[in-house]
Model the fold of this input.
Amino acid sequence: MTDWPLLSLVTFLPLVGVAFILMIRGDEAVVVRNSRNVALLTSCATFVMSLFLWFGFQTGTAEFQFVEHAEWLPGTGISYRMGVDGISVLFVLLSTFLTPVCVLAGWTAITTRVKEYMIAFLVLETMMVGMFCALDFMLFYMFFEGVLVPMFILIGVWGGPRRIYAAFKFFLYTLAGSVLMLVALLAMYFQAGTTDIPTLLHHAFAPEVQTWLWLAMFASFAVKVPMWPVHTWLPDAHVEAPTAGSVILAGVLLKMGAYGFLRFSVPMLPQASADFTPLIYALSAVAVIYTSLVALVQEDMKKLIAYSSVAHMGFVTIGIFTMTAQGVTGALFQMLSHGVVAGALFLCVGVIYDRLHTREIARYGGLVHRMPKYAAVFMLFMMASVGLPGTSGFVGELLVILGAFQVNTVVAALAATGLILGAAYMLFLYRRVVFGKLDKEDVKTMQDITGREMAMFAPLVVVVLWMGLYPAPFLDIMAASVDNLIANFETARAVADAASAAVAMK
Amino acid sequence: MATDIPNLFPALPEIFLALVAMALLMLGVFRKAESTRLVGHLGAAALVAAGALALAFGGLRTVTFGGLYITDAFAVFAKVLVFGASAVTLVLAVKWLEQENVQRYEYPILVLFAALGMGAMVSANDFLSLYVALETQSLSLYLIAAYQRDTVRSTEAGLKYFVLGALASGLFLYGASLIYGFAGSTNFDVLARGFVAGEPVSAGVVVGLVFIVCALAFKCSAVPFHMWTPDVYEGAPTPVTAFFSVAPKAAAIALFLRVMIAPFGDLLAQWQQVVVVIAVLSMLVGGLAAIVQTNIKRLMAYSSIGHVGYALIGLAVGTEEGVSAVLIYLSVYLFMNVGTFAAILSMRANGRMVEGVADLAGLSKTRPVMAAAVATMMFSMAGIPPFAGFFGKFFVFKAAVDAGLIGLAVVGVLTSVVAAFYYLRIVKVLYFDDPADQFEPMPPQAQLVLGITSVAVVVFFLFPLPQVVVAAGNAARALFGA
Done:
């Protein structure tokens, strides 16, 4: 099994599906049905393929695994290099796990241009998986940016009434951030002579260069996370995107920024990361509290969940920059958990949106009477989002706060405040939508979730409970890589401190 | 005496083109208008053959005609681009001429003469041969800009181009004469020997150099000498615009590279800031002015101005890496522009050509394949990976960063975000808007060209990027290794 190019297969298998969809001929109904089937089959096959990663992954080592290498651009030090470690492998799985769910989510909701929709999703999957697998900065950048194209089309073609505004805002915001990272990439390439990530991880960049490189990458990753105050594209994009687009946006795309911090900023630029930690804490704390308050007053369900995503990602950035084992592990766990939970919450919204075609909270109420199964599913994910023990949300948030408490009690206290606010807005949302009197005529006729929707939610429910009740397998995969990350970070800091002490002595 | 016959091999592609052009002219004269198609296709074949000749015989650096003419890897690279682009746009044009019922066999002949001039331009090793080549090219171009002589727009475009082009030629001559006066030669090799990096140089040479930079900036339509471009691109018949936006542009930039690097490479300190300013202004104007355009040809004019700005970053760097990056950029640019114009040439609804951006509305519903191809071109021009356009920009910015011009690279990436806006606007029109009038089916030639270029743009990173990187590296080394 090990001599198979497993990562390339997982990455590019969706493109094979795209090729099949492109070859479908026939009348409209046949094309629609077959593209759906091909997309579902391909994404499921990709998920099955990616399970080999889960079973074949060696815990206990921080080395990159399943490494592949091929020549690409001769004489430039840029090559095709793939590999995963404990930090990235779970995100590959998250991406391949959510894509079939998204295909199912668009099964009946998408009625126009189904073929193009499925193609966009499969291309998006390739880009996401490739980004987490890339072990070459150039390759990473290609996938990182490449995501924008299918997402732009998804929001713009199948989105809501203000879709064009949202699509442009999403694209240009992220592009503006990313191009600055490109300059940083080039500067690092110039300094180290290669774009090979494992080599860059061990290259010591000069302290004064680190600051600029860090800021340039921060511009890109902060927009992607998104951190306050560059988060404003997110509510627009979420609200206008079709349900599955929101799921993938919240589930995977937001993780790209945090992954970038973990893969590039922190290990490659330790000195600058340490210097800028207060900035990250401040922005994250603002994000956690401010966006939670904003979420409280939202009238639109998707917007509320979008703001809650910003708050949850604030936890993640705090966790990463605590640079403690608990904090970083918590951040990683929170990212996975948020990927599943926020995705599931958008699906919950999508389910009732498909029936009533409105996302306005006030238009609903008393759903529990007509839709008990739906109420139960929604409750579970709502609780997971709040961080109820026994669900995946609890583990991540607890670890982050534990980690934060070790380095900065104020930040830990502010983050904990965010938890309370999170509980407030989620419970408030749930009460207004699901409980209360069933007095609206059209709400009275709503059907409970169908078999297809149940098939969509079932795996998510299982994963949320599994991660909450028995998180050990996930934590084991992360452990070695996280320890290695922190050890390297501490060493680099110690070396830098010794160097500056030596300068001071003279 | 045998020694009196100069070595003709370095000029073989151009000699071949000249002979073919004259033969085809005879053919046209005797067979009149119905020969347009034949002359056009034979002309395109001749261009391809000329490119092959350049590849076959031009690899080694050879100087001939008493130092006036040179061939090296750089000239070959540029000639292959120029002849290839000319051939493809000529094939597209022949079809268009038939559709518009303006078949005249002079068109292919003029394109051949222009290509001949361009080939000689990139092989010039002396200001005199350079001027002759430049004028051969320009005079042919003035004529084909005014080719649709019954329409006001076309004649106006031709006249504007002629008046401003003549002014630029005057600037060039004046600059060359100043340099001759102060440095004592017009030959690039002799000039190069006379300058030493870091040593003071007479003010006369610097003034002459600035005049030449201005003239060359005009020829490749860089800001602030770009004013003619939008008008000429909009007014000229569409196939002429397609031709203008690729072949002469590539030739002018290649010429710019040779003139700045071969004789004046050691005076980098003198001209670098001028080229930096031109590059920055071109990127800014190209990005900002295109936003408000509603005519697609005019939009492409500003787009090309922006692209020249990015390419000139590589020249401003003035290193071997920079030159190689410009050549990569040019190759990518030709693919994208040829493909885009193949689509624009097929924008024909209700029996006539349309040129509005709005006419593309909803194309993804009426002609999904064409829309997907055009969208690919737009994403590529915006520099989004994994499309080809990204790699063009990547190498240019890399050269700038390596040479310490990080500010220039930052301006470059930020203006590319501005430019992304108007490219996205076209994607938006294609995909998000409701359909406008349906276009007539694309002619097979345009289908073929658009198909090949869009596939090439998508898979560029696999093929031919690695090969182009190597070839451009060799070409750049040839330019510096003089």
